[in-house]
């Protein structure tokens, strides 16, 4: 009988399973290693992208704040840090946002409608509102006070913050009217606005105080010319015109526009709007510069507007009686040649050295540089700069007072009675040139490369006009710093 032999295959399946498990383990191990690298990379990319979003958001917030607060980075080379807040629960990287002015300037006193400063000799600054039958005094634009608030009547601040250096006065009689603005007390003062002297002191001319007469299209004006006055200009009843240029009033006396004097100072630039009646009578045809081109956008031989520079105790007042109102409208200086010093100024008290050279007779500290009395109108389109002086703006008994380019003073007095048309200090005036500001947001990455987003924006001195983004760039993951 034949014996049959068979192979025993028990355990073969186990061997196959072990082989498959080994191969699968090797594959899975590789995949897990690859996945770990991918997860880490995804985390890095997500973190970096979050930083990019944060930097872009910082620039966006900075654009809105610079637009809202024109005292931030108001001129070329002026820098500032923009406070950007985030909700406490938000997981947002910390962002540092700064701005730098690159071209053009904000109107007013470094973007402020009012800047009250301690004098160069340490006399504390004072912002005073006199009772004036309890009529509120309104300011359109930011206000900075280095010193005290002496508010006997309420002060309303529109379209701007009220900043008071040092100790706050929470009980002061003021109100910040528009949402998004506040009263706060910074530790330091902002930079003073530029006030560069002309290239040379004009030679003294004793004949300048006596005007010439000019008749154009049936209207007659007494005409005054730029230069160095050693006696006050002899204003005439009726129309008076100061031709565009630089005026240096170097005497101890007061110029009074009153008793029916109607005074216009400087050619109106194409960006400026004349104060309408009843504030001022219509500008007469005789109030023109020699050689003035018919096209208002073209600069004539003397540019546009005037600078009234006051030395010694020279000062200015408008005052009328009854129907004989005093009327004075001063247009901001815009000199394409730069010979008149800083553009945008209408009135300046000659500063002490080293701000202006000692060849100029500085304005005496404490002088009441400008004041407005009864039955008169004063409209100033450019900046009033009086660091060591008092500026008194009153609106009583039919008076209307407007300062459209801001005020710098050691003491500023605002007064308006119920019968006055009103008083206004603002930076809502005219600016012929756009202003450019660079906004930069940085997210710092410890041990890594910072994320930087930068934009350049074009601004107008008008909150109703949206900013124009000239450029915007964000340095991402692979971009070099």
Strand tally: 31
User: Biggest sheet, open or closed, and with what strands and sense?
Assistant: 15 strands, parallel
Tally the helices: what do you get?
1
Contiguous low-pLDDT stretches (5 residues minimum) are none
Strand content: 25-35%
- Helical amount among residues, as a percent range? 10-25%
Rg over CA atoms, rounded to whole Å, is 33 Å
| Alpha-carbon distance between the two ends | 94 Å
Shape: elongated
Class computed from helices, strands and strand pairing: mainly beta
**Average pLDDT reading:** 83
Summarize the helices and strands and which ones pair or pack.
Blueprint: H1 12-68, E1 79-82, E2 96-103, E3 114-116, E4 125-129, E5 137-140, E6 143-145, E7 147-151, E8 155-158, E9 162-164, E10 174-176, E11 183-184, E12 212-216, E13 219-224, E14 227-229, E15 238-242, E16 245-250, E17 254-258, E18 261-265, E19 306-311, E20 315-319, E21 326-330, E22 345-349, E23 368-372, E24 376-380, E25 383-395, E26 400-403, E27 407-416, E28 422-426, E29 435-443, E30 451-459, E31 468-475
Parallel strand pairs: 3-6, 3-27, 4-7, 4-27, 5-8, 5-28, 6-9, 8-10, 9-11, 13-15, 14-16, 15-18, 16-19, 17-20, 18-21, 19-22, 20-23, 21-24, 22-25, 23-25, 24-26, 25-27, 26-28
Antiparallel strand pairs: 1-2, 2-29, 12-13, 29-30, 30-31
């Amino acid at each position: 009988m034949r014996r049959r032999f068979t192979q025993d295959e028990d355990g073969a399946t186990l061997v196959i399973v072990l082989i498959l498990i080994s191969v699968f383990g090797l594959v899975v191990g590789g995949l897990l290693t690859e996945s770990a690298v991918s997860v880490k990379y995804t985390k890095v990319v997500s973190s970096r992208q979050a930083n990019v979003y944060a930097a872009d958001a910082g620039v966006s917030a900075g654009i809105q704040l610079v637009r809202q607060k024109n005292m931030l980075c108001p001129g070329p080379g002026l820098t500032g840090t923009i406070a950007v807040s985030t909700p406490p629960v938000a997981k947002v990287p910390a962002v540092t946002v700064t701005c730098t002015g690159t071209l053009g300037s904000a109107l007013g006193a470094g973007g402020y409608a009012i800047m009250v400063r301690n004098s160069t000799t340490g006399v504390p600054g004072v912002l005073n509102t006199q009772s004036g039958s309890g009529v509120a005094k309104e300011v359109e634009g930011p206000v900075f006070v280095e010193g005290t608030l002496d508010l006997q009547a309420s002060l309303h601040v529109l379209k701007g913050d009220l900043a008071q250096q040092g100790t706050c006065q929470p009980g002061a009689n003021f109100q910040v009217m528009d949402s998004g603005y506040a009263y706060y007390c910074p530790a330091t003062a902002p930079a003073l606005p530029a006030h560069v002297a002309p290239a040379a002191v004009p030679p003294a001319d004793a004949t300048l105080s006596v005007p010439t007469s000019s008749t154009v299209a049936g209207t007659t004006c007494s005409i005054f010319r730029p230069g160095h006055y050693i006696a006050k200009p002899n204003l005439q009843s009726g129309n008076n015109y100061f031709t565009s240029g630089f005026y240096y009033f170097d005497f101890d006396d007061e110029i009074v526009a009153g008793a029916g004097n109607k005074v216009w100072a400087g050619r109106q630039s194409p960006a400026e709007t004349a104060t309408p009646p009843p504030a001022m009578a219509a500008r007469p045809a005789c109030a023109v510069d020699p050689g003035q081109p018919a096209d208002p956008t073209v600069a004539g031989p003397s540019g546009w507007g005037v600078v009234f520079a006051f030395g010694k105790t020279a000062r200015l007042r408008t005052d009328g009686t009854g129907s004989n109102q005093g009327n004075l409208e001063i247009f901001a200086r815009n000199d394409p040649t730069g010979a008149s010093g800083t553009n945008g100024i209408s009135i300046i008290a000659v500063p002490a050295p080293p701000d202006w050279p000692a060849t100029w007779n500085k304005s005496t500290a404490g002088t009441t540089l400008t004041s407005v009395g009864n039955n008169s109108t004063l409209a100033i389109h450019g900046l009033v700069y009086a660091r060591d002086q008092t500026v008194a703006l009153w609106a009583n008994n039919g008076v209307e007072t407007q300062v459209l380019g801001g005020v710098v003073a050691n003491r500023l007095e605002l007064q308006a009675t119920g019968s006055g048309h009103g008083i206004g200090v603002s930076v809502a005036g005219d600016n012929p040139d756009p202003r450019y500001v660079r906004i930069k947001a940085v997210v710092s990455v410890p041990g890594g490369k910072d994320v930087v987003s930068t934009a350049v924006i074009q601004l107008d001195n008008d909150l109703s006009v949206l900013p124009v983004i000239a450029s915007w760039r964000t340095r991402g993951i692979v971009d070099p710093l």
